[in-house]
């Protein structure tokens, strides 16, 4: 069942705010345990199998802008995620001298409709970084606590990969990975020359069926457009909608949660939300409230949930809500490979993302920065879209003319047309995604001066990179050049220097922000206990990436899913014991 | 077709016909030769997006004269040849018109650049661009088409022509004839089984021995995945 709006008489066992990875998993586990569940989603419903919602398998000429990005879909006109960096009527602010960009998806499934499906487990070291390098803090749990849940997530949702036996890159229950593409073989060759490992990637894309409800990948390379065969993971297709089909889950769409409501004793009693349809406020009651609105949005809701018993916002007696906000580091480099010019054409689309990657392979004890990064590779003969044929004013010189001389840049006419064809599929590149050090001084708070169009106070961000992240970006660029040149590529663009923090992406840009409601054993320095339960409010839980104490160099989704499952099991058990 | 039937087809390898996977009839899948600008982007649009697209489509930025100039220019940049049509034949000017409104940052450089051509024509030939004969027009293009050779006094013209080259090329190669010319053969259901053997050989590659038995085999795509307790996937044969 799906409601646009609903009266407030009914009460649920659990209200879940948000339908992304964390909220979706919680809706499945809690409803299957027999609890009545309401999921409150700020955006609309979404099902990529419905033809009216389908952007997959569309050609660029089905878009007047030929697939280029828009404010609502900055990653392209056919990207499945609706929202972006700058949502009409939903501002956020940044403190002077700091920067943070916040990507939001307002729809069922949230940002799982967008992500690259890179599904990496955190390893044993990733939970205990402070013990290793003295920076930041350890998690109150370790790999052993999460391993059974990672295993269950692998089997429930599906991830391909290869068993490697690396200590900090734990293997899972993998589906067979696809063979590498041609440019990826060149990357492997270049990396091998400088002793950098490249292994099959680990993506939640079904290369074999795992059940009868989802199809297998048919290799269109468009996971970011959402799969009509449900062959990749998104929370809507794999968790929430299946849970709704079994009953017990009501979905409230276009509903913007303003606060968690409480009683005089400080216990959560439900939520208050604004319906985007009639712009009226509704209240919904429940025994337990689960926040899965995304690290920053959940922090915002908590900070806005002020009451006599929670004067600084619910769960915020420590003042830690919003603190330790951190994103992955990111830097990218690109080259052009003469061996890939004038290539024979064949269908090289593959899965929606890289077929190979490089996990962190070095020892930080021998380096001048803490924490590692992984490398993602890209290139190949993907589908042309807005941007194809660009930059011949700088790139045509890499093509040789009929006499073997470099072609002049720019030009026009039949020769230009042919050279655009010759150069197609010869560029390639890589992106580093690394671990940053969580900082108390990097945080989000309520901006006292600004509200969104629903009248809800918005977030103000404070974020600055430290030397560790900047030095890591420098190291990435040194590595990128080594791999690209050893692969035989000519480097494009210039190597960024200290003036641009070595090309380090603006905080938020990698869309791995975590840590705003971190877990810990000490209620004075953390928001949640090790079961993601608020220290200050027994029936309030957080299931997005807010509870992360530190964000490894790995994409957070697989850990959000495992943690949410574990938290949901704990909620069921606590309800049974009548502890909450 | 329901989902179950759809999946069955996937499992039995009926992958050849694309429409099976797209939940739509073959008629709907028919693609028009020229790109359709009207109607906005297809698939999953929010009300907000529909309104934005319709607003952009209802507005006009380019004047008739500017359009005429662009028709000349885009066909100089991408002319017809034995294999493929010219830029005007695949609606490149309509595409440019749309992009002017979608990315307003293009507007002033485009308007100014088209004016610059007239100034250059007046200064050198005593006529505006459209009144010049073909060899005079080409003389102007020659002066601005080669960024590394162009004189510094024509830098503005070079920048304009770089932008126009980009927009023309992208507008051209994102059409069906453009795809055909480039030889792009993807965006269709298929089974990826690695780089074709003869291309592997030509580039001197072999798959790493250690992964040969790990990679996906096309024939196992229909088998339900099962693992042993150690997480090894159980494979037939």
Automatic annotation (TrEMBL), chain A:
Where is each Glucose-methanol-choline oxidoreductase N-terminal domain found?
Answer: 186-327
Its recorded name reads Choline dehydrogenase
**Classification via InterPro entries:** FAD/NAD-bd_sf, GMC_OxRdtase_N, GMC_OxRtase_C, P2Ox-like
- Swiss-Prot/TrEMBL cofactor(s): FAD
The entry's family comment says: Belongs to the GMC oxidoreductase family.
Q: Which organism is it from?
A: Belliella pelovolcani
Q: Which PANTHER family match?
A: PYRANOSE 2-OXIDASE
**Keywords from the UniProt entry:** FAD, Flavoprotein, Oxidoreductase
Q: Where is the Glucose-methanol-choline oxidoreductase C-terminal domain?
A: 445-563
The molecular function terms in GO held by this entry are: flavin adenine dinucleotide binding; oxidoreductase activity, acting on CH-OH group of donors
From TrEMBL, chain B:
**Source taxon at top rank:** Bacteria
Q: Which InterPro entries match?
A: Gluconate_2DH_su3 (IPR027056)
Against Pfam families, the record matches this protein to: Gluconate_2-dh3
- What name does this protein carry? Gluconate 2-dehydrogenase subunit 3
The major lineage groups are:
Bacteria, Pseudomonadati, Bacteroidota, Cytophagia, Cytophagales
